[in-house]
TrEMBL record:
It is an enzyme of class 1 (oxidoreductase). Its EC number is 1.2.1.27. Pfam families: Aldedh (PF00171). InterPro entries: Ald_DH/histidinol_DH, Ald_DH_C, Ald_DH_CS_CYS, Ald_DH_N, Aldehyde_DH_dom, MeMal-semiAld_DH. It comes from Sphaerisporangium aureirubrum. One of its GO terms (molecular function) is oxidoreductase activity. Residues 18-480 form the Aldehyde dehydrogenase domain. Gene3D superfamilies: Aldehyde Dehydrogenase, Chain A, domain 1 (3.40.605.10), Aldehyde Dehydrogenase, Chain A, domain 2 (3.40.309.10). Keywords: NAD, Oxidoreductase. The keyword Thylakoid does not apply. This is methylmalonate-semialdehyde dehydrogenase (CoA acylating).
Amino acid sequence: MRHAGHWIGGAETAGGGRRGEIFDPATGEVAGYVDLAAPADVDAAVAAARAAFPGWRDSSLTRRSKVLFAFRELMDRHRDELAALISAEHGKVHSDALGEVARGLEVVEFACGIPHLLKGGFSENVSTGVDSFSIRQPLGVVAGITPFNFPAMVPMWMFPVAVACGNTFVLKPSERDPSASLLMARLWKEAGLPDGVFNVVQGDKAAVDRLLEHPDVRAVSFVGSTPIARYVYQTGTANGKRVQALGGAKNHMLVLPDADLDLVADAAVNAGFGSAGERCMAISVVLAVDPVGDELVAKIVDRVGRLTVGPGDDPESDMGPLVTGTHRDKVASYLDTALAEGAKLVVDGRETPVKGGTVAARTPGFWLGPTVIDHVRPGTSVHRDEIFGPVLSVVRVGSYDEGLRVINETEYGNGTAVFTNDGGAARRFQNEVEVGMVGVNVPIPVPMAYYSFGGWKSSLFGDTHVHGTEGVHFYTRGKVITSRWLDPSHGGVNLGFPTNG
Ligand code: NAD
């Protein structure tokens, strides 16, 4: 049985109180336990981070980037181990878990350049003999609260940048797949990061609430569902903290009639069913502009029929199980809802064969095969709700304008994509669509680490996106210094407001 404890002050520590279960999603069996922090555990982690802050803040930029480089090398060396842990607890296939590690490592690589990223501005002689310069300084103890679907990558959106900027960090990972965070903590220590700079508290709402009210926590980065993101933003800011809270998504792919439908079908299947649809940038709605609907749906159904659904550690599996039984049941309930709302179930994932077992609905483990629902009407719950599973909806629209309106009337604004060979139409789309991350013939437009990741509307609360230069900005505060080195000519009393001369 695996046991995931906390990581405080450079060592793993067991919590004494409540515990949660860690499942093997492929079998449905309990594979281990995770400690669920009490407020006192959170206080211990914050105290360790607070004690480590002055030393880390004052460490040179060279030292910080050396530690980051070492961490990068260790993570790279242990990526298979990390991916196996992710796959075992989350359920995603090994190659997909390796992909999340690789995308997270790009943020570590970005943060290795921290000496350049923290360069300020300098103006000589803003007044005679007076210079002005700006610097950015770390905040202190900062916290990251992360979701189950990327147990390595999403924390890596946050902590490499926060730590590089000179902050100390407390991570509260998802209680559903907690082990990746502990491996990363061990590798930080091996890389030479001083104890207390990076801490992990496992837990649930009780841990989150304590972080949100703790007076020593200066900033909170959150990624998760929209209701919790809104709550974290409101509670954290009410307690005087800087907060960036990324929420849920419902991402649409707009397919114009001139698009190459084979490429579109490949993209829709990859982006809809990768990681069993448990990605905040998954495509969950295809908007097929007339007359492409019938042909496109046939091509998607053909590809879906060739997918192998099976355990994450089987190299032949294209798609693994969902994260928990409760989540699978919730996702599966939308299939009946779709029928009740007048849509057509063209592929029913409950009937999908699971490798080594029977069909999804009768196999132990949290299985649901790829599901395609056609003729979904805009505004119905299947279209509106974030389902967060392997369910791809097809909405038929008559024109570009109608498709754009459907996207812009959606509550969320995380990602979207347009598929077309018409540059003018694509350019119009990127200008008119109310979404934070836009793909042109790219179905999952996740920005590279040196850009910033974040959505619009109910997909993000706060005004700062994660990683990239916005991440550096979020984890630092600005200071402007005006300096003059005195000589006797500067004497004399003058109560007027300082002006330049
Ligand atoms: P979640 O909101 O249930 O949990 C996220 C975090 O909040 C976890 O650490 C969890 O322990 C904590 N939490 C849960 N309930 C809480 C409560 N009542 N009070 C305080 N804290 C609470 O999300 P999840 O199911 O783990 O992850 C899936 C969601 O995350 C989806 O909605 C997905 O779209 C979203 N997500 C968004 C992005 C993005 O970049 N916008 C990226 C990844 C995932």
